Give the backbone structure.
Amino acid sequence: MQTKATIFFLSVSVYLLGLVAFSNHRAAAEQRASKEPLVVAGASALNEAINLAVRPAPRKKATQAAIAAVAPVKMPKADPIIVSTIEAFNEDIGRKEAVGLASLIEKTADRYDVDPLLVTALISQESAFYEDAVSPVGAVGLGQLMPYTAEDLGVNPNVPAENLDGCVRYLAQNLDTWAHTDDPVALALASYNAGPGAVSNYGGIPPYEETQNYVAVITSRYQWLLNENLAATAEVYG
């Protein structure tokens, strides 16, 4: 009887021990399961942080100002015949300045519908392309404008671009004045030198030696430039 009781007691003890072990295993499993999502989520966040850290930043598009800051400065285009004429008369001018002045002559001449080669011939005689030239009678700059003429034209004769603008505009006005004649260029040049009133009074180029020489030299130089231009054009187009 005692043996049976002992066996029953041992069986119950084993059962209870097994039940306790099962419960502990289940609890541990549930605890691991509850922690796994946090671990996975933590790994995912860590990977994303690493990706953001090593991912290259997007490149910003270069602005026009940034490009202009490093881009080489381009020289303006200019008629090589005008450039060479400027260099021939003004031995002190550099290549870059000669090209810039030639370009300015062309743009200003185009503004007033005047042949830039005629303007080139005129300025070669007036100032030899020296922007600071001053004559004994007080004429100033590239076009040798008298102060009162510059004032009438509304330009500052000491500013090269304004001086040139006044010069070409005044020449254009005289060309228009004598457009109905047989030789508007010669009469416009005579008017530029002696004044349109003198040309009107004499019905042509005034009998002033200076004015007659002035007109003869510039018209001859203008014709030479025209011939050079024709030769250059023929060479290009065969």
Notes: Residues 2-54 form the longest helix (53 residues). The chain has two domains: 1-59, 80-237.
